[in-house]
Design brief:
Length: 347
């Protein structure tokens, strides 16, 4: 066992041990890389989802291989996936009956005939990675969900949550994530939902998850999403909205998903600069304080902050990617943040 005097040191030591283990095993690292949000090894899970023929829970920050059958379990609110196993005729009929029954529930104020006359999202078959064979059912689901999110009000919570859940499922795909990011009205509406004090906890949480999923490890989606801001109509951008939301949020669950979105945004160096110029390190200290006062997901939030420092701020220090003027005054607050991360969380 490796002795360590702090949570951060333990976390770094754990990563070193995992890295050394991977080096000795001939299988690819991507197949065994783990995500750990607590100090308990039993609660770690693979970074890349390992499917079986049965549905298994998919964690927010797991990467999904292509071609899986992904669903949202409406009974538990948990996302699940499995191999795309062909179903028997009887099971297919049963599934179809379930879909028909579910479609009878009210899902939006706009009827299908009314949706024809609204501004519909554009689906570009020529994506950055080449031609895209669009699935008709997925295209219909995406289009209807985008229209619903654009036009529904905050008071339509259940219908908005259903549409957002559809978009979150689709956004794990590189192509759908890029298509979502190209839709300016949708992207701006999502940032409004996550930063509005009138949005419910569930809306804030799912809006952050949809945005983070669409741009996570998707450079083209992140680049096109940023083009909708910093203009005469929208002088501020996503970083300003996320920073404000982090300062006002009290729920550890929502804070965890907002930290996921923040980390995804900071894959763009300009967004990282904006975060630091807006006193972002103090914002992270505030996030740790808020998470410590909460009842749930405290360890997950602390680990998300720790990973953000390791992935973004530590790299900035070592590689000098950002000028001294940009981070002026942050050296002392970064030391404060590291001290805060090393403190034992409140029981």
């Amino acid at each position: 066992m490796i002795p360590c005097g702090s949570f951060l040191a333990c976390l770094v030591s754990f990563h070193l041990v995992v890295s050394q283990t991977h080096a000795a095993v001939p299988s690819p690292k991507a197949a065994t890389d783990l995500i750990c949000h607590t100090n308990h090894a039993s609660e770690c899970y693979p970074r890349i989802f390992q499917p079986t023929e049965s549905f298994k829970t998919v964690h927010d920050d797991q990467n999904l291989p292509p071609g899986l059958h992904v669903r949202m379990n409406l009974a538990t609110g948990v996302k699940e996936a499995r191999f795309n196993v062909p179903e028997s005729d009887d099971r297919a009929r049963s599934s179809a009956l379930t879909i028909v029954q579910d479609s009878e529930l009210p899902r939006a104020r706009l009827t299908r005939s009314e949706k024809i006359f609204v501004d519909r999202p554009t689906i570009d078959l020529q994506q950055p990675l080449g031609h895209w064979n669009v699935d008709v059912a997925e295209s219909t689901l995406f289009t209807d969900s985008v229209i619903e999110v654009r036009h529904l009000g905050i008071q339509d919570v259940d219908m908005l949550l259903s549409a957002l859940a559809n978009l979150e499922d689709l956004s794990h795909s590189y192509q759908w994530g890029h298509t979502l990011a190209k839709d300016g009205p949708l992207i701006r509406k999502l940032y409004q939902l996550l930063s509005s004090v009138e949005s419910s906890l569930e809306l804030r949480s799912l809006a952050a998850l949809v945005l983070g999923t669409a741009i996570h490890n998707n450079e083209a989606a992140l680049a096109v999403a940023l083009t909708h801001f910093y203009n005469d109509e929208w002088p501020d951008g996503p970083m300003e909205a996320v920073t404000l939301a982090l300062l006002n949020e009290e729920s550890p669950m929502v804070l965890s998903r907002m930290m996921f979105l923040l980390s995804s945004l900071c894959q763009d160096e300009r967004q990282l600069k904006r975060f630091l110029r807006a006193d972002g390190v103090h914002t992270l200290i505030r996030v740790l304080d808020a998470a410590s006062a909460g009842k749930d997901a405290k360890d997950k939030v602390r680990t998300k902050v720790t990973n953000f420092v390791l992935d973004h701020l530590s790299a900035v220090e070592k590689e000098n990617k950002i000028s001294a003027e940009t981070v002026s005054g942050t050296e002392w607050t970064l030391a404060q943040l590291r001290q805060k991360m090393n403190e034992q969380p409140k029981a």
